[in-house]
């Protein structure tokens, strides 16, 4: 099972989601793998220092080697499930790749919740902590749901 997390620049939310997902899946012994990309991502940037710090200190997850990448057709084709942080990310993907609409959801929509995961970019570290905590909880629900469906 290949899950693709998508945000805007692929430096905050989606790399945190990728790191959290892979750590949870590994801890549960699941054969699931996550990657991440951005709808408007520059190539090769590190994850934000705040995202790296929060995952390392609060979850013992190292995303310091992350490099941002822009979403490609190959990413969309290879993913079994594409989870976006916001409705605008979802719309952007569906405009480019409408034939893959069956596997594109916002992360909250996928687990039956309303709303979006707010972008912590440029905000204080405590906002990143809240975002990571929110993503961690959502990812637990995602893993539970895909485990039941397999």
From TrEMBL:
PANTHER family: LOW MOLECULAR WEIGHT PROTEIN TYROSINE PHOSPHATASE (PTHR11717), LOW MOLECULAR WEIGHT PROTEIN-TYROSINE-PHOSPHATASE ETP-RELATED (PTHR11717:SF31)
Family label: Belongs to the low molecular weight phosphotyrosine protein phosphatase family.
UniProt lineage: Bacteria, Bacillati, Bacillota, Clostridia, Thermoanaerobacterales
Name of the protein in its database record: Sugar-phosphate isomerase, RpiB/LacA/LacB family
Keyword RNA-binding: no
Molecular functions per Gene Ontology: isomerase activity; protein tyrosine phosphatase activity
Keywords of this entry: Hydrolase, Isomerase, Protein phosphatase
Source species of the chain: Thermoanaerobacter kivui
Xref: SMART domains: LMWPc
Source organism, top-level taxon: Bacteria
